[in-house]
Amino acid sequence: MEAVRDLTFTVEAGELVCLVGPSGCGKTTLLKCMGGLLTPTSGDVLLEERRVTGPPPGMAFVFQEYGRSLFPWMRVAENVELPLKQKDLPRQRRRELVRDALEAVGLADAAGAYPWQLSGGMQQRVAIARALAYEPQVLLMDEPFAAVDAQTRADLEDLVRRLWQERSMTILFVTHDIDEAVYLGERVIVLSASPTVVQEQLKVDLPAERDQLHTRVAPRFAELRTHVYQQIQAAKRGSLRDGLTKSDPPPATR
């Protein structure tokens, strides 16, 4: 079964780009290919002109299911430190990176806690801290806020924007939430229904400084989210139309 078709796009260094598309269009599959977790059957993923054949050393991944990505028997600081042990860093340097990452996500006081003692939003902050401590050049995020409540989601969105601005990372953020994509991204890539192609690449011309109270009620925000919504609905209609065409019986002959 073909999941992704001829799909080509570029993310520039230091960009924050959001990927959206109809449910089941292959967003997570695409992100795993980009992170070297899946090997595409054709085509290449290039990072700084080098072909990705496995997880690159300068890339970190934040998954949707934080409960499965954190080890419940390890304390918060231990969870954050774990990937650093592969870097062969001195213990003191690892501790500095862990402390800095936890402070960056507002969890400096939770280093000694276990993940199961924290709320869902705090657990996802731990997962983000673990990615930050790795000092990635590229951060891939796969619907990381889908399982948290609306208020926590808003706080985490602002956290990602702040960290992106402070640390000059390249972030590719997959989401099914159109408002989130427009709020977060400098650019939104709209994917078609499966087999997936790039339907549109939309520049988000909102101010660099954004906040939940004012940005989301701005007329331009409404225009952008409406446009993305229309594109996704068009992708769904195209998929339905293709499905009906394929299932139609052949015309009768005389």
Overall domain count: 2
Number of strands: 8
Can you count the helices? 8
Strand content: 5-15%
Mean pLDDT: 87
Q: CA-to-CA gap between the ends? A: 35 Å
Structural class: alpha/beta
Order of helices and strands: EHEEEHHHHEHEHEEH
The best one-word shape is globular
Main beta sheet, described? 6 strands, mixed
CATH topology of the largest domain: the name is Rossmann fold
Strand order of the largest sheet: 4-5-6-1-7-8
- The CATH homologous superfamily of the largest domain is named P-loop containing nucleotide triphosphate hydrolases
Low-pLDDT stretches are: 243-254
Helix proportion: 25-40%
**What is the gyration radius calculated from CA atoms?**
20 Å
Q: Which CATH class of the largest domain is shown?
A: Alpha Beta
InterPro entries: AAA+_ATPase, ABC_transporter-like_ATP-bd, ABC_transporter-like_CS, ABC_transporter_ATP-bind, P-loop_NTPase
Pfam families: ABC_tran
GO molecular function, one term: ATP hydrolysis activity
Domain ABC transporter: 1-218
